[in-house]
């Protein structure tokens, strides 16, 4: 009998879909050390370990060319991939770059894009070693694969968090989302009234957070120099709550996150109130901040506490306690991928 079942992708969601499609994924090569399910895969080649990650950026889904300068886009396409390599505590070394290009692009436009690609390669000491180019009928398509190296078995996964570990995050959160809201608002105003030029001069921080994210190479380097091996790590591409839930699920633990400890830049707070959004909600579910979220052993507390680029925002609990946000007002909320819900 023919099976006419049709399941909508939306019923699974992005992560459910990946899990569903890869549930029978088997690895057969002895060199496959870590497969699907982390920021990057790890393969062993004759005793040396390489870390590999791929990301796709699509026009209209991940970026809007109306307010994204091509040079910034080239930089960001590389940067967000390198972020996944740093999130393994590895050092990126190479990238490949595949492009789908529509005929609305000129050679000069693509040169500008490559200026950004090379700026990122130079800054993070990475070589562009290949790729692919095709025409596209559906807008600009960018796929980057990043490769990195790590000392044997010194990579950090999402799955090593232990009860009582401290939860840490680098930099500040929510800025990229608020920068995006600002650009979207200015776009609407411009489309309604093309005579008005957007004035973003006072919003350099937030606009920079969305258009030119910086992967936290400095944080992994500092952790290495300080002799701190995080027990788990992930980069924040989707939002603090979603990423923390990934760590908790992979590590089979729960967590307590303190609202008051979540680092938020003053500009983000101001913009959140202008948009009548919660700054904490932007940090929890906004995404694209490309900061590092990681857990450390209690014994590393003092070393980390004196680094002003790192905030300690909570701690790991038994799985049965669940994943919770403790609000400034003392209420406990259940963390969800989209932020939190009252319990
Ligand atoms: P990140 O946000 O760090 O880029 P993702 O959420 O995109 O990670 O991916 C989670 C895991 O699923 C990664 O290990 C990734 O390699 C894997 N993955 C994503 N899409 C696919 C796919 N279509 N087929 C196989 N594995 C995938
Ligand atoms: Mg990641």
List the keywords.
single chain; 343 residues; alpha+beta; 60s Ribosomal Protein L30, Chain: A; Phosphoribosyl-aminoimidazole Synthetase, Chain A, domain 2; 2 domains; 6-stranded mixed sheet; 10 helices; 14 strands; globular; binds adenosine-5'-diphosphate; binds magnesium ion
Structure, described:
This protein has an 8-stranded mixed sheet with strand order 8-10-7-11-9-12-13-14, with helices on both faces. A 6-stranded mixed sheet has the order 1-2-3-6-4-5, covered by helices on one side. 32% of the residues lie in helices and 26% in strands. It folds into 2 domains: 13-150, 2-Layer Sandwich (60s Ribosomal Protein L30, Chain: A); 166-334, Phosphoribosyl-aminoimidazole Synthetase, Chain A, domain 2. The model has no long low-confidence stretch (mean pLDDT 95). α2 (70-86) runs parallel beside α3 (107-123), α4 crosses α5 (204-211) and α4 (175-192) packs across α8 (266-274). With 343 residues, it is α+β, with helices and mostly antiparallel strands. The longest helix is centred in the middle third of the chain and has 18 residues, at 175-192. Bound molecules: adenosine-5'-diphosphate (ADP) and magnesium ion. Magnesium ion (MG) is lined by residues 39, 84, 87, 234-235, 237.
